[in-house]
DNA sequence: GTAACGTACAACTTTATGGTTGTAGATGCG
DNA sequence: CGCATCTACAACCATAAAGTTGTACGTTAC
């Protein structure tokens, strides 16, 4: 059952967000534990604003969420979104498998049971 | 056993390549069957050169390969590369699972067997 | 209250992306 | 051969991405 079909634009954002090593690292850290934007920023050799932007990209892709906690914003990874991304790759692989299955059928013992 | 660890740059290219609807469609088609660049180009409302560029991006990400066949270049999807991408997402999900497992352990019957 | 901290946001620069057109080189066909 | 097809590649344009600095504002701590 399809819970929520992703639009092309959403898929674009998800993969685009994952196409950067810093952002992938942020996803890793925020899956491990909630962490504030400033704590994240300390981990990388770039400005606070740059890290802030990376978090924003991840947030637009819904790969992380931000939750206010005092003066900080705690960032949290969203595993559901990762699973959605996996499904997209699964779907592609299924296409491949269908092709090989078709080929296997052709090469197997019996000729096609019906023909034109 | 790790067959071939991907560099950050390779991972970037893979996800970047997948972050475009046209390119994802090209991957689908080339997983289904080998198809020439010009045949691909007919399928989209853009110039041949544009499609050529998309194929080049996918080729640099090693998501497809090109094989000369007469005057055509047959494009073929590379399912192994998709599986590598899946593994990357799997690894991230594992991090999440480790976190929940830790939490489950804390919340389960017995208190931690050792403490500070 | 004031100072320090954490964040938000705007402006700007540089580089990459996604598209175009145009030209030229191979290959296949009549 | 001569022509159409398929591809490669360069040049160009518009827009987006990734980084910077600077400013402003809410929250916490003293």
DSSP summary, beta strand count of chain A:
3
Q: CATH superfamily of the domain at 8-78 in chain A, please?
A: Winged helix-like DNA-binding domain superfamily/Winged helix DNA-binding domain
Global shape of chain A: elongated
The residue-averaged pLDDT of chain A reads: 90
User: Which class best fits the helix and strand makeup of chain A?
Assistant: alpha+beta
Query: In angstroms, what separates the terminal alpha carbons of chain A?
Result: 35 Å
Largest chain interface and its two residue counts? A-B, 31 and 31 residues
CATH A-level architecture of the domain at 8-78 in chain A: Orthogonal Bundle
In terms of per-residue confidence, which ranges of chain A show pLDDT below 50 for 5 or more consecutive residues? none
Q: Report the helical percentage of chain A.
A: 55-70%
Total count of helical runs of at least 4 residues of chain A = 5
CATH class of the domain at 8-78 in chain A: Mainly Alpha
Largest sheet of chain A: 3 strands, antiparallel
User: Strand content of the residues of chain A, in percent?
Assistant: 5-15%
Order of helices and strands of chain A: HHEHHEEH
In the sheet with the most strands of chain A, the strands line up as 1-3-2
- CATH topology term of the domain at 8-78 in chain A: Arc Repressor Mutant, subunit A
Plain-language structure description:
Two copies of one chain form a homodimer. With about 120 residues, the first copy, chain A, is of the alpha+beta class. Chain A has a domain at about 10-80: Arc Repressor Mutant, subunit A. In chain A, about 60% of the residues lie in helices and about 10% in strands. Chain A is built from five helices and three strands. The first copy, chain A, has helices spanning about 10-20, 20-30, 35-40, 50-60, 80-105, and strands at about 35, 65-70, 70-75. The first copy, chain A, has a three-stranded antiparallel sheet with strand order 1-3-2. In chain A, helix 1 (about 10-20) runs antiparallel to helix 4. Chain A is elongated. The first copy, chain A, starts with 7 loop residues before the first helix and ends in a 9-residue tail after the last helix. The interface between A and B is medium-sized, with 31 and 31 residues. Chain B binds a DNA duplex (30 and 30 nucleotides) through helix 3 and helix 4.
